[in-house]
Write a structure and sequence with these properties.
Shape: globular
Radius of gyration: 27 Å
Number of helices: 21
Largest sheet: none
Strand content: under 5%
Structural class: mainly alpha
Helix content: over 70%
Distance between the termini: 49 Å
Number of strands: 0
């Protein structure tokens, strides 16, 4: 394909993404479902060239920034608090699911080598970070379930990738050592964590010296790719390196970013991640044509592989349910014996956690990366795509109903300050510093209006924190007026510019002030 035609195809894909996303919004569907289905339909449009996805390139392009985004936004304190549960899902559930799938596939196809069965298990075992985000962003979960799913999706790719590489190597050599595999996994994970910490520390030092918003944003955008590529170059886990870098960098971004950098960077990063997530699902759909052609056509694939593929999909779901419910039973037993203070999820929470195991880009990329001549390659490809379709289209669309059915009880966490109480605490320390600086060295008041302003503000915020329910309706009405005033000011500003009374620089400066005021008012109403 000519480079120009390839670029035209990419632009067309992004236009299709916008249309499909809009259609999903109008129809009330998860965007991932519309994008995946739309991509699959587009793959068979007459005249459209076949899309051949390079699995290694897909992983390198999409996985690092999406992992980085997940690590950047995750609650680190809750991640530490629930690390045992996350490790149980990211490592234990992946190993268990891989083993169960391998056994079932070997029972169906006794002639298929165990290594090939294990390779398929490793490919389909880890739920996908991108798919999980696409599903979770449309539902509301208790914080514990949210952090378990987010943490699992960040770390389980490392487990799946290690298992996959050992299975492929075993298929090629005929030798496999479980002890060696476990030891190598911990070496890869530890090495990845060290690489991530080093890269993040270097980033913090660099950011403190750059001094330019756009350079800082560019360096931060490249951070995920640098961590992943360096980790892979050093033969450790690029996934763990990227996640570790994201966690450390996120912890420090509050002190190294200016307000302007944070606002500009967040806007750019949000759009970039949106396009990348959407492109992943569209590419998965577009790759259906290649998968079907490899299998000999729809009729051949369904006739020869339909029931085995369905069996693998059902096995995946059952295995995850078995692991989650068994783990919850262990927690319940330990809690009853006083060995842990962790409370079990209960039947509803365990059901939601089990049903949320959606597969995506990593599953497809690993399947496509199998070398030609690998035992059962066509079946593995077709099954991997069936698993993606089944989990995204079925579990992704019904998760909201499962959550509603579960009627999950609200969590009880240790006491924390409310947002208004935190604002009151900030207002008190701000008033303290203003009181110190409002007087000169001789004790003369030189900033009376500023001092009065912060005194009035601190008093109002403390009163609001103590009587929040009384003030909420008044607060909303107040900021409704502010938003109307901002809109009126914006119209007048545009009129002045259109009439030629102000230049572009004045327009930009005053419009930015109005934007900040509008964002502040919207945030205060939320």
């Amino acid at each position: 394909m000519e480079p120009t035609h390839l670029f035209e195809l990419v632009i067309a894909m992004f236009l299709a993404i916008i249309a499909l996303h809009y259609a999903a919004h109008r129809l009330g569907l998860p965007p991932s479902v519309a994008l995946l289905t739309g991509g699959a339909l587009l793959a068979f449009v007459p005249g459209l060239p076949a899309i051949s996805v390079d699995p290694g390139l897909v992983l390198v392009i999409f996985l690092p920034p999406l992992l980085m985004d997940g690590a950047w936004s995750i609650a680190l304190s809750r991640l530490r608090r629930h690390m045992i549960g996350i490790a149980s899902l990211a490592v234990g559930a992946v190993l268990f699911t891989c083993a169960v799938v391998a056994v079932v596939v070997h029972l169906i196809f006794p002639s298929l080598p165990w290594a090939a069965c294990a390779a398929l298990g490793a490919i389909v075992a880890p739920p996908d970070a991108v798919s999980a985000r696409a599903v979770l962003e449309r539902v509301r979960l208790p914080r514990r379930l949210q952090i378990l799913l987010e943490g699992e999706s960040l770390l389980n790719d490392a487990s799946g990738l290690v298992l996959f590489r050992f299975a492929v190597a075993a298929a090629a050599t005929g030798a496999f050592s479980a002890g060696e595999a476990v030891g190598n996994f911990f070496v890869l994970a530890l090495g990845g964590a060290i690489v991530g910490i080093v890269i993040a520390a270097a980033w913090v030092k660099l950011i403190r010296h750059l001094g330019d918003d756009y350079l800082i944003i560019a360096a931060t955008v490249l951070l995920g790719w640098i961590s992943y590529l360096l980790g892979e170059l050093l033969h450790v886990s690029g996934v763990i390196a990227t996640v570790t870098t994201g966690l450390v960098a996120s912890w420090h971004q509050h002190t190294v970013f200016s307000a302007a950098t944070r606002m500009r960077g967040t806007s750019f990063w949000t759009v970039m991640i949106f396009l990348m997530e959407a492109a992943v699902f569209t590419l998965i759909g577009l790759s259906l044509r290649d998968v079907v052609e490899r299998g000999g056509g729809f009729s051949t694939v369904i006739a020869t592989m339909g029931l085995p593929m369905l069996a693998v999909l059902v096995t995946l779901v059952v295995a995850r349910f078995a692991w989650v419910f068994a783990s919850d039973l262990v927690i319940k037993s330990c809690a009853a014996l006083g060995l842990t203070r962790t409370q079990p999820l209960g039947a509803g929470g365990a059901t939601v956690l089990s049903w949320a195991g959606v597969r995506g880009v990593v599953t497809l990329a690993l399947a496509l990366s199998l070398p030609d001549g690998f035992p059962g390659r066509d079946f593995i490809l077709a099954t991997s795509f069936t698993v993606i379709l089944g989990t995204v289209l079925v579990q992704g669309t019904t998760l909201g109903r499962v959550i509603a059915w579960a009627r999950l009880a609200p969590e009880t966490e240790r006491a924390r300050l409310t947002m208004s109480q935190a604002e009151a605490a900030m207002a008190q320390v701000q008033l303290g510093i203003v009181q110190n600086l409002a007087y000169d060295a001789k004790g003369k008041l030189i900033h009376p209006q500023l001092l009065e302003r912060y005194q009035r503000r601190a008093t109002a915020i403390v009163d609001y924190a103590e009587r929040t329910e009384h003030y909420v309706p008044l607060l909303h009405a107040h900021f409704d007026v502010v938003l109307e005033a901002v809109a009126t000011g914006r119209r007048e500003l545009i009129r002045l510019h259109r009439a030629g009374d102000i230049d572009d620089e004045t327009l930009d400066e005053l419009e930015r002030d109005l934007d900040l005021e509008e964002l502040s008012a919207i945030s205060a109403k939320a």
